[in-house]
Design brief:
The protein is of the alpha+beta class. 18% of the residues lie in helices and 30% in strands.
Length: 222
């Protein structure tokens, strides 16, 4: 996961990483913020072989910003059949962008009904408190509607956390992702679900990527 600051000009690099680098070849989900995608950029421009792409392009009218923004999630087809990967919602406001995707992977612990993944982008630290309040409400709605789901929330949080607004989730990133600041975070409703580590940013991006690995991993054979 990470803030890519334009996905289109980094797609070839991501594709090469997925093909040739072991740490990328094992990835089931790739979550990116600041994709900068719009209606003029089709899925064909940013497709990654073997993954289903789910986009949340910035709505310029709702976001009140003309540049930046956008979120997306790539889901590996070997981990979850494309028919079982569904974009549930994409919300966009001046404070926050949230892409919500539900998945029913091939293998999942019995205590969970399915997986819900939220990719979050907060554009400005000055509105981080209001953004966290909106996110907290969205998470509570999901918890009510899907009480047995495994919920993962990641993205660019701009110096805020879920803890500040009553939606307590377990953090899985404790290393800086830009300079000395931990801006790109990941939370879930399962303690110690992941180990995470920062890796070199993509070309022309100022944020380190974060690789997270499930502590209990199931390998799905083709």
């Amino acid at each position: 996961m990470g803030n890519v600051q334009s996905l289109r000009n980094k797609t070839d690099e991501i594709l090469a990483n997925v093909r040739y680098l072991q740490e990328f070849r094992d990835i089931s989900l790739m979550s990116f913020t600041e994709t900068w995608l719009n209606d003029n950029i089709t899925n064909e421009h940013v497709n990654i072989d073997g993954f289903k792409l789910l986009r949340g392009d910035r709505n310029l009218d709702l976001a009140e910003e003309q540049k930046g923004g956008g979120v997306c999630l790539y889901v590996k087809n070997r981990w979850c059949h494309p028919n079982n990967t569904v974009l549930r919602s994409h919300s966009c406001s001046p404070n926050i962008e949230i892409l919500t995707v539900s998945m029913r992977p091939y293998c999942l612990p019995r205590e969970f009904s399915h997986v819900i993944h939220l990719t979050v982008y907060i554009p400005n630290r000055n509105i981080a408190k209001m953004a966290a309040e909106e996110l907290s409400l969205a998470v509570k709605d999901i918890e009510i509607a899907h009480p047995y789901a495994f919920i993962v929330i990641d993205g660019d949080f701009k110096h805020t956390t879920l803890r500040k607004n009553g939606a307590y989730y377990y953090p899985h990133v404790d290393s800086p992702t830009r300079g000395n600041a931990a801006l790109d975070l990941c939370y879930s409703n399962v303690k110690e679900a992941y180990n995470s580590s920062p890796i070199t940013p993509l070309e022309r991006s100022y944020h380190d990527l974060v690789i997270r690995r499930p502590r209990n991993r199931t390998i799905v054979q083709e």
